[in-house]
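Researcher: I'd like a structural prediction for the single chain below. Treat it as a standalone chain; there are no partners to consider.
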Amino acid sequence: MKKIGFLLSLSFAVLKGNAQENIQKTDTLKEVVITSSRIDLPFKENSRTIQIVSAEDIKKLGVTNVADALQQIAGIDVRRQGINGMQSDLYIRGGSFDQTLLLIDGIKVDDAQTGHHTMNLALPIEVIKRIEVIKGPAARIFGQNAYSGAINIVTKDAPENSLVAKVQGGSFHQFLGEVTGAINMEKSSHLVHISKNFSEGYRYNTDFDNTNIFVKSQFNKDKQPIDFIATLSERKFGANGFYGIASATEQYEETQASLIGFSTIIKKGNLTLKPRIYWRRNQDLYLYIRSNPSAYRNMHITNKIAAELNASYQSDLGITGFGVEFSKYYIGSNRLGDNQREIASLFLEHRFQFFNTVLDVTPGISASYFSDFDNQVFPGVDVGVQISDKFRAYGNIGTSYRVPTYTNLYYSSPTTISNPNLNTEEAFSQEIGLKYISNRFNFSVAAFNRDADNLIDYVRENSTDAWQAQNIQSVSTKGYETQLDYSFTIHNLPQKIQLGYAYLDNDVKKSEANFSQYAINSMKHQFTSSFQFNFFKGLNTTIAYRYVERTAGMSYNVYDANISYRIRAIELSMFANNIFNADYIESGMIPMPKGNVLFGMKYFFK
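Model: Treating it as a single chain, here is the predicted structure.
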């Protein structure tokens, strides 16, 4: 693996030279419209910290899943247990995995059992158009789960009739086989994806078997289009040490996550209506001893049924966004019991513009009814100043809120005591930023602060006591982030450099408890970079590097590399992960794998 690293470093050195000015025209951030909120705004006019990961960026990184792609975003902490995203948790700006909301085409796919299941519905990368990362409090826009931020996966529309087959194989006996097809007809279009991914694992009892099915259709195209989306992800994996102490080597888990949704867009003059209904289901089977299910077994089934109506109205006073949402959660569990929760929310915001659109102010509010907790109101305001066509300054303030999951409230085991009397987590956040956007150079910097109260932690007084969830921590989180993207050409071949840095400082007030199970160990320093370069037409080469230092003092450096070459209907690829064999841990006590390689072939049928 060291020889591979040397060759890749040598390849990068060849790139030094003069960049030509004739940049090839592609879709730029200026052209991207952020559609996950009620007021659709071009990326350059948004007054929040939002980062875009395009399908092209994901492809050139060579990663096989969303979790690995998000590793390259400064301010996003993806803590993986195992490979290929079998079990991973999302943290934004020092928040917890329970405080991050995942959306698919604007559909909230949160799980009432636990945030550990957030990534169960992370879609196959072959059907993703882009990923929108919204940092900071987003409760005013999305509701209570967007405590520290949200991630919206935007799926591809069905392109022209096509069929693509892909296979990959490599270290740890990994194999990936997938087929993606699209068909366009007069009154409907359809995108279908099926994939199978399995491995023997990179250490004892870390094997996995993953199946994905995805369908996106549009019906009634010639009249009032109706959009349909359905996806199923089934994961079976050995969970050596994933939950609990390192000696729990025989753990095993199976999850099934699915989503079905219908939506449409109705335009009547200045009024735009976006109705949507959907059903999200998750099933989770956990065995403490894989070969002996009777020793200790958890079985949880959660369902979420929701209906939304989002709207916007354009008037002389600006754009008004408003909406109403109702969702009902069900859980049936041998450990958490049978429970239900209803949430009803109202949303209202208005975008004012002053001084010939130089200044814009968007105040907004969300009010939510909870059947099992106190009702809440989330106010906030975004302010933006368009300094020039390319420069924009912005700031925002807002509140956020999270009700405890059913695991927080009711989970009991030989080492854990339930606590049905938990209160909600609350936070007040502020942010200021500056961004520059042009066709080939994009730069952003933001500073932020979050004052959080009643954070939920698992604590105990003595080392022999059982753990219990308590509202004990108040944390002030400060930090700043910066991101730079630079695109250029050498001999008419596109090249791209991406750099990111994030700094976090968590001021944790001392807890009265003697022992804390989930003491905050967020990233303190994070540096990400990728270099996409081409020697000749059809050949794409990318080197990615990230450095992480955590508050507990641990730090690590990881290098990845990807090379792909397309000739006519065939594309060949090689992805090398951790090419310098770094020893590192992202979550708990689970060591990540040393250097490993995936070889792939993709065939484009005509």
